[in-house]
Design goal:
With about 525 residues, the protein is of the alpha+beta class. It contains 18 helices and ten strands.
């Protein structure tokens, strides 16, 4: 044992000195004498690195003197002319000065001139990077670190994406952003421009709780605003059930312009499948905020044909007539009605489902008109005989996917057992068609009478809301069932990105790739 201890002492004396400058050496584990040794080692390292840098500078200068090419005045002018020629060629390729390609090149050249410390990025580049980083943070970092292009850092984007707090319900900061967005679109310049509609629908989410490290909250419980939460907790206490439930759906309310391109996600609520009783106060509170605070006039609301939405319409019934309710009085303006609209694309799909089951598929219907049958097989024969192999097709947009329906193509409709119901469309579809036709007609007449030159009727459907749900499902890749936390953060991002949020290629709405206008309005930033 004594021999071993003596051997170890000799080895320690002959071993090289400890490198105290290494990052693994912590100060709390080092004595005062070793700290002094560390300072001396750092001084030696700095001296050695300075000497190495000077040596490399001398070598670079020598290489330039030996192999470098010195341009005279004429060659310098020719090189500048060549650079300007390339710039002119690029401008010819993209003649529109407001094109995003021109803007991108100008920003890259500006970065090379000012550097990262003096660079002030254009708001359009900020919006594009916010949208890109929300899709995939790794993709944004990879592009930025590749060296091919220059982009704003993640720290810069963080200040823009966190200008407002990501939360559920109605928020004053979001109301202020909506007012600024409407002002930017010129909605307060003319009377007819400030008419808007409310779109609302639910998206299925994953039942999960997420810890928010900024607030210390567990995100994922049902949250229906303050008053509705108290009513919900009271009902659960009376029924001896658990006071809190994990949400299964997210109710999103969006503000849609009629004569403008306003598409603004206004508020979100975590639900366990919304009912008409809870939807009623949420809807009218949204109307009150828009009418009083934002100074926008709500003319219509659009939703799908879910049972809770149909019951919500019927809550505004004023008499005992059997006709479906399609409007109600606006309490903020006695001279203006508020119209209910059942989403027309959803109605067309339910009507298609009824037709597909007429003498075909489930065979639950036998549609007829004027003593003649209306069968799904008529469309099948039309496609197979005149469209599938005929170059000059009478129905060029009719494809095999429209004929061979899958389970994903269907929207669930209530089956009817009586013979009278079997020869017509479903009652829900017929009521929805009546409501939509009457409401859209009245809205168009009203806005045209207020000074508008024309109305695009697709502004009355809920495609922008379906597009917003598509962004939530494509966040960070394929995410068909996002959490409450994901949907909440996506709403905050879409408010900042605006029109640069491109709609997904895949989805249940038509894809319209419009030219993105250059918007130089400064984005609000967290201080």
């Amino acid at each position: 044992m004594l021999r071993k201890r003596h051997q170890r002492a000799v080895e320690r004396q002959n071993s090289p000195p400890t490198n105290f400058v290494h990052k693994t050496v912590k100060h709390e584990n080092v004595s005062r004498s070793n700290l002094i040794e560390k300072i001396n080692q750092q001084r030696d390292e700095i001296t050695s690195m300075s000497s190495e840098i000077e040596k490399l500078k001398r070598k670079c200068k020598q290489e330039i003197l030996q192999d470098g090419v010195i341009l005279d005045l004429v060659q310098n002018i020719e090189l500048k002319d060549l650079m300007s020629t390339c710039n002119d060629e690029f401008k010819k390729a993209y003649p529109d000065p407001n094109s995003v390609q021109r803007l991108f090149l100008e920003q890259q050249c500006k970065f090379e001139t000012f550097g990262k410390n003096g660079m002030r990025w254009h708001p359009m580049i900020i919006r594009w990077c916010l949208y890109m980083r929300n899709k995939s943070a790794k993709a944004h970092d990879a592009m930025r670190e590749s060296g091919f292009i220059q982009l704003p850092s993640a720290r810069t984007l963080f200040d823009y994406s966190h200008y407002t707090k990501s939360a559920l319900g109605f928020q004053p900061d979001v109301t202020k952003m909506l007012h600024e967005e409407a002002k930017k679109l010129g909605m307060f310049e003319e009377n007819y421009k400030n008419y808007v509609g409310l779109l609302f629908d639910e998206i299925r989410i994953k039942e999960d709780l997420v810890y928010d490290k900024h607030t210390g909250e567990l995100i994922g419980y049902c949250d229906l605003d303050s008053i509705s939460n108290q009513i919900m907790n009271l009902e659960k206490a009376v029924n001896d059930s658990k006071p809190t439930q994990v949400a299964k759906f997210m109710l999103v309310i969006m503000v849609r312009g009629i004569t403008t391109n306003l598409k603004f996600p206004f508020a979100g609520f975590a639900t366990n499948s919304i009912t008409a009783d809870f939807l009623y106060p949420i809807f009218w509170k949204a109307v009150s905020i828009l009418e009083r605070s934002v100074k926008l006039k709500v003319l219509f609301c659009t939703c799908d044909g879910a049972s809770a939405n149909r019951k919500f319409f019927q809550l505004h019934k004023l008499d005992n007539r059997r006709e479906p309710v399609y409007f109600t009085k606006n309490p903020h303006d006695e001279n203006r009605n508020l119209y209910f609209i059942s989403d027309v694309p959803h109605l067309l799909k339910t009507a298609r489902n009824c037709l597909s089951n007429s003498y075909s598929h489930k065979k639950t219907r036998q549609l007829w008109k004027r003593e003649k049958d209306i069968s799904w097989m008529h469309l099948v024969r039309l496609f197979e005989k005149h469209c599938e192999q005929d170059i000059y097709s009478p129905c060029p947009k009719l494809s095999r996917t429209h004929i061979d329906l899958t389970a994903f193509s269907y929207i669930n409709i209530a089956a009817t057992a009586t013979q009278k119901a079997a020869i017509t469309l479903s009652r829900q579809t017929l009521d929805g068609l009546k409501i939509s036709v009457k409401s859209i007609t009245e809205c168009v007449k009203f806005v045209l009478g207020s000074g508008a030159d024309f109305i695009l009727t697709h502004h009355f459907n809920q495609d922008p809301l379906e597009q917003h749900f598509g962004h939530c499902r494509h966040k960070s890749g394929a995410n068909n069932y996002p959490t409450v936390y994901d949907v909440r953060n996506m709403m905050t991002t879409i408010r900042a990105v605006g029109s640069q949020a491109l709609q997904p290629r895949r989805g249940n709405i038509s894809v319209n790739r419009e030219n993105i206008p250059i918007d130089s309005t400064k984005l609000p930033r967290r201080r």
